[in-house]
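Running low. Invent one:
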Amino acid sequence: MHAGHGYRRPIGYNTIMTRDQVKAVLERVLTWPRERQEQLAEIALEMEAELGDHVYDATPEELQAVDEADRSGVASEEEVKAAFRTFRRP
């Protein structure tokens, strides 16, 4: 098929994404259903953790957002615990 006829080349391991393409995909993620966004966030955090042994230091704003989500009941108890494990040191 020709590129003008709706054919999209599948992304494979040999495809190199540019910084702009990565940004565009991440912007589209915000339109995905919440469950899929959460799954991607978990995967991304796992990948980030594999990059090194550094501990992510959450900003005060991020910690406040986690606390507010905990009080609001918007996030499940398990989601809040996962966020605390990610953002707070033991």
